Amino acid sequence: MAKRPGIFPTFFISGFECSTFKWKDQGRRNLIDETRHAQHAREDYCILHDLGIAVAREGIPWPLVDKGGSYDFGCLDPMIDAMNQAKVTAVWDLCHYGYPDDADPFDDGFAQRFADYARAAAAYVTPRVHGPHFFTPINEITFFSFCGGEWGWVAPYRNCREDRMRLRLALCRAAIAGVKAIREVAPQARMIHIDPLVYVVPPRDRPDLKDAAWHETFVDTFLAWDIIAGREHPELGGSPEVLDIVGANNYSFGQMEYREHGPHKALDPDDDRIKPLCELLGWVWNRYRRPMIIGETSGMGQGRAAWLHDVMQESLAAVDEGMDLQGICLFPAVDMPDWHTGEWLHNGICDLVEQDGDLKRVPDKDYVDELRRWQKELNRVTRLDADPFSDPVELQDVIDAAKRLKAKPDANWC
Fold first, then answer.
1. Which InterPro entries match (predicted)?
2. Domain containing residue 106: CATH number
3. Do 15 and 329 touch, CB atoms closer than 8 A?
4. Distance between terminal CA atoms of the chain?
């Protein structure tokens, strides 16, 4: 029996890019198709099995399965069959930036429509998938609100701060309704609400923007989580139990210099204003005191292994400070295209290489070697056993490793 049983069957998690947004002038996009994940589902999940990863973020494409009151979830069957065979369970993303063509997030009926869909999705997947059940109702509400409400990248293509605020409130209302609907059919299901970790500083020559940068960091970053937790807009029905698990995404471009218009500018790796990841995690922990995961993290290109090393050092420092960090999601498992250019980002555990009209999965050896090193340090499995769901992960091993290694927070990304 575990001394400190974790929520998940493995400490390391992964996932697959699954956006289904309407993108600028390109119409509906489906990143599941663009990465050929559905066609390679068995191979993709076998890769995770062989890496000792028993949990993966997986998308349900709401715009494609919602037929206006009825649902066709058949497109999920290849993934469900593959994950069952590989003994991997899912964190189901129910809305990864995309919603049906005839839905309007500003409409009064949007939350109810999402709740109806969430209930139907949970009723479909929970009896079919082995292992525990996890859901992310609406992915990255804060970022979704920026790119759909203020920057005009994705539907609903709005371009002002006021619409960003309205969109965020509408998405929070829907997410809360979705949690309650899921629990009608799957009372034991756990919820993970994913948003980016953000730290924003004023430009060195614009001290007048200090307050705006502070507000972005300590108010805007947390407002969606605050609403879901019932700290703000309690009339929407949020509570700590609805928030459940906090998923904080960590990328280098999450630490930025404030810009008055458009996206902020990412700080350079040697910028002396960078904060250690452990400190950012501490802001989340001290605010909510809920279980946490790093919901997404990955370096780029040849920096993937070094990025994982830094993230692990910071994560163990956070554990040593008493934070309830339940897992780290290496995202994505296979590469994904840049939304703007279509070029492969080379941020996955596996690169995608075009070959004979298909996309071959090619593991990044340095990244995998670094994962293996940390699995051994934390006494984690390196390949899934016959029943990875029979026992929860032993978090005491992670706590012991944190104390043994004496990792300290460090702002150096280099």
1. GH
2. 3.20.20.80
3. yes
4. 40
Which tokens hold the place of 86? 């590989």
**Torsion region of 354: left, alpha or beta (phi above 0 gives left; psi -120 to 50 gives alpha):** beta
Q: Which value, to the nearest 10 degrees, does the dihedral of the CA atoms of residues 331, 337, 341, 346 take?
A: 70
User: What is the tens place of the pLDDT at every residue in 355-372?
Assistant: 999 999 999 999 999 999
Mean local confidence (pLDDT), 70-86: 98
Q: Tell me whether strands 292-297 and 325-330 are parallel, antiparallel or unpaired.
A: parallel
Name the token pair of 211. 């307050």
Calpha distance 96→341 (Å, rounded): 20
Given its phi and psi angles, is residue 46 left (phi above 0), alpha (psi -120 to 50 degrees) or beta? alpha
CB 167 within 8 A of CB 214: no
Domain limits at 46? 12-405
Backbone angles phi, psi at 183, to 5 degrees: -70, -15
Taking the CA atoms of 185, 295, 344 and 267 in sequence, report the sign of the dihedral they define.
positive
Q: How many domains does the chain have?
A: 1
pTM: 0.97
Assigned domain for 413 exists: no
Residue 288: inside a domain, yes or no?
A: yes
| Gap between the Cα atoms of 51 and 350, Å rounded | 12
